[in-house]
Amino acid sequence: MNAVTPQPPRIETERLILRLHRPDDLAGRLAMTGDEDVVRFIGGHTQDAEENWARIMRYNGHWALFGYGIFAIEDKATGAFIGEAGFADFHRGLGEDFDPFPEGAWVFSGEAQGHGYATEAMEAVIAWRERRFGHQRMVCLIAHENAASLRVAGKLGFVPFAERGYHDVERILLARP
User: What is the mean pLDDT of residues 149-158?
Assistant: First the structure.
């Protein structure tokens, strides 16, 4: 696979700035992933500084290899890091109806949840992605108990197509045709 070396976009919505992760996002990401309520559906354990740093590096690597990735999300009014949203290739081993397609992902700090930021951010990312790559199947995977993310996925046009175990938890696989 050849590196893409894109110029990652900076996307602005009414309330958010979506941009490439920076080293100074470590503190915000550490606070977000240190909250047990935030991580209960995304791995189930809090993450230390090393795990968070590796994740920031991985997310930036997606941009270099694929021309897309996970954005850091800032609150436009305050400049605070409040979450992440975008698409990635996680190689989860979930099958040919899932793995070859860009996987949508979003996570927001506890304080930022419940304000519609995930929907706002992902609508902007989907629009950008479709302009850049055209219309194509997109997927996501959500735990049954994660009602908030299932609502967001529904608003974005994702529909369930299968259920599979992933890391010892049964998950719903969804696709956006």
Answer: 97
